[in-house]
């Protein structure tokens, strides 16, 4: 079985306990306007262009088997004919063309994860499977979790909550730690910002809570989108209702904006700035006042 | 820190280093009247003459007394080792970095007294006169450097002796050893007697010097109007009258005793890496615990005394270096390196109350000198590591972190007893030694990429056009990677042979002409053997060649293997043509080599298999060769600042590096080549077998964000533990942003206090050369990748 992986990140400290290696599976049902991993949204591999590295040598145009690589007035591009075969990415000596998304087998991924075993064991860390939305590749995800399990590597799964509840319950039985995003509690607002309703997300969260799964709720703090008191109080209410104890606040950052350029896409929130320290402290205090454990940047 | 320490610290920081010709003048005066003395006795009497006549200094506020020069930061010269020319003095006075003020009087003394007496007689002159042409060619080409051409063998760290014995006791032991000599059957008995008698003279010389300080303190007390300072001066007088003649009885006396011994060692000779107080926390613990229990010492007072010692060390910039030696070690730091933690002789955890006290001192003093490190065993508590990590996180490069268990293993492999190994540690940058029992002499750096460059040119140095290596064949004719590697191995052995032949001559020159009877008093078993530190007297004698830039060399070999022999998308001729043109008009070739080759530091077996093989080849070429002192050769991997100098004499390389650019430092990856973050670097570095070295240096630069908060601190400590689990020897961290460094480069005046870890020690960023500054900025800022 193969999956589409768009990154394996080492020495991650904020995606579960200890030092973690994060596997990013490609494809996501949501399209959050603030998304900082836009290359994780589409299911298939995509070509990314690092235009500033281009020296205009034309190697990409020469090797492209589909005639899809272009160079117009020294500016590199691609046409609709691109199949993301990756030929130009291995040719470009400047590293100006890269592929987001590689087909990998479970043993391939596991092999790379095992390199980091010593760091996981020394730190109480493990593997975090993220995305995109890992549940979109549920069969691959299950095999990967089994493989990690057989090597005694603890697993966390980062999810937006969209997926088959049976898959979630299976993961829960495996003892997986869920890092579970709840972006907005109000259905209409959720749809407005992410392009997707949240009824299924909240139902899945309830299922996991009832199954006593290990769940950490994660709230990406997006100024003007979900950092208002109403959303916070709704989330507090939901967590109390479900008996969930911990929430991580993930402050919005702009590091992903450059990736939109590389994917030749428009970023919807070009003016948006990260939340202020005061705002983060205020939110943290609100959750804490409700008796919840809060980690900012966790 | 209290006000006294703040004043002393400020004075030390604001005083500019200057050259003092006092010692040179006294040495010259002594030499005029010295007749008919054996070499050891000549050296002992010379030390005695200097200590009898040198100007004393007891500064306001000081509690620990004694200066090497006439005043803080007045640095003596050692004309018997290196007789500076008038041009040298101009350079020292005027060079932009690491300068020493030279006044007119100093220039006059040098010109009228020192040069006429010492030119042609200094060790430097003797060494260069005796080196074979092949040695001189390789040295001039930048294949290796020579540590002993301006400075004496050193790298010495104190054991327990000074804290448990007084000089009079050591003198008595030397006398007893003379009495035991067998003049009938031992042909070396006369030489031993001379050495032992010289040690006895050296002991007397230091006791008399301490007594001079006591007398000065007493006379200062008589006229001191402030009753508090008067009392302090009288205490200083009492302490100096007792130590180092007698064994110290108190924490205070122990520190002063150490300082006198330190001064003796660095006055006798300009030993490399000055001198270190050994496992300070363990040696001081009995004094500290007893006095705290008795109520005669408070923690604050102990801290103040330690901080007075710190100021003393900081007052002693390295003796001035010129030429290649200045380039390979371009720093004021003289590498006194404090070891904290580690193991006890019985193998139990050595961390104690004084360890934490020392970490507080290091944190509070924030000084270039002394340098500091923690010796981290798997037995060391996390509390200890986390305390140290909090200091590391402040970003000025101290303390560095050593794997105490690996240090023990390295020493055991070299044949030390288990107790001697556990009481060992690291000094200088990262060098492993059996403290108080070993002479572990570094003899010079070896430039691996240069050797590959010579291999790629069939024995020719393309920079000079001279043939300096073996004719191993035109690489265009090599059918396999193994042929290339075999040629490289042949060249490596050729240059190691040249270096070792030179070392053998130099070792004998020091043994004959530059015995160190004072230093020999403190190193087991010099007294018992009646032999000098520089002539095999210590229990263990190791000779090192320091290997540099395995990262650059591996990446170049890897690029050739990948493109010329495996993928065959470039020919050897294309690569050689490109590097000979310094990649001008060959930018595409350069980018292919730079971006599309396996690189060391990315946990990529394609590159890391090469570094492991390279390690074995270097080890097999050097380790186990005999020295002239009954000892053995070993290797270690460090570079101080030599990777910049070596880079400047090495042409473009197949890894895509342009001519003249700095090489990789220590065992760190090439700057900018490690693209998968710190865990990958650590896994790659652990592919070398650190047990078979006497130290390796791994430098990691972190942005502050990566070590922020409890999570960042945990990550840092776990990273360190992981590296040590994998068998790493040492790791150190710079925590700064590249933006900060660029700002400091643009406006140095605003960033004079910015300390960065360079390559085994910390230095002021603004004191570094532009080349080194650029290199530090270029080094990959480790992010989560």
Explain what you see:
The complex is a heterodimer of chains A (about 300) and B (about 775). With about 300 residues, chain A is of the alpha/beta class. Chain A contains 11 helices and 13 strands. The longest helix of chain A is centred in the last third of the chain and has 14 residues, at about 230-240. The relative contact order of chain A is 0.15. Chain B is α/β, with parallel strands linked by helices. Chain B contains 32 helices and 16 strands. In chain B, the strands form 6 sheets. A 5-stranded mixed beta sheet of chain B has the order 3-4-5-14-13. In chain B, strands 8-11-12 form a 3-stranded parallel beta sheet. In chain B, strand 3 (about 335-340), helix 16 (about 355-365) and strand 4 (about 370-375) form a beta-alpha-beta unit. The longest helix of chain B has about 35 residues, at about 190-225. Chains A and B meet through strand 1 and helix 4 of A and helix 26, helix 29 and helix 30 of B.
SSE layout and pairing:
The complex is a heterodimer of chains A (298) and B (785).
Chain A: E1 2-12, E2 20-25, E3 46-49, H1 59-63, E4 69-72, E5 75-78, H2 87-91, E6 97-100, E7 102-105, H3 106-114, H4 117-123, E8 126-130, H5 138-150, E9 155-159, H6 165-173, E10 177-181, H7 187-194, H8 199-210, E11 214-221, H9 229-242, E12 246-251, H10 257-262, H11 277-289, E13 293-296
Parallel strand pairs in A: 2-8, 8-9, 9-10, 10-11, 11-12, 12-13
Antiparallel strand pairs in A: 1-2, 1-7, 3-6, 4-5
Chain B: H1 3-14, E1 18-20, H2 22-33, H3 39-53, E2 74-76, H4 86-94, H5 104-118, H6 123-130, H7 133-141, H8 161-164, H9 167-179, H10 189-223, H11 227-242, H12 251-268, H13 280-294, H14 299-314, H15 323-328, E3 337-341, H16 353-365, E4 371-376, H17 382-393, E5 400-403, H18 404-413, H19 418-422, E6 425-427, E7 431-433, E8 438-447, H20 448-456, E9 460-461, E10 466-467, H21 481-513, H22 517-521, H23 526-529, E11 540-548, H24 550-566, H25 572-580, H26 587-595, H27 605-622, E12 632-637, H28 642-648, H29 678-685, E13 699-702, H30 709-725, E14 730-735, H31 738-746, E15 755-757, E16 762-764, H32 770-778
Parallel strand pairs in B: 1-2, 3-4, 4-5, 8-11, 11-12, 13-14
Antiparallel strand pairs in B: 5-14, 6-7, 9-10, 15-16
Helix pairs in contact in B: 1-14, 2-3, 3-10, 6-21, 9-10, 10-11, 12-14, 13-16, 14-16, 16-17, 17-30, 20-21, 21-27, 24-27, 31-32
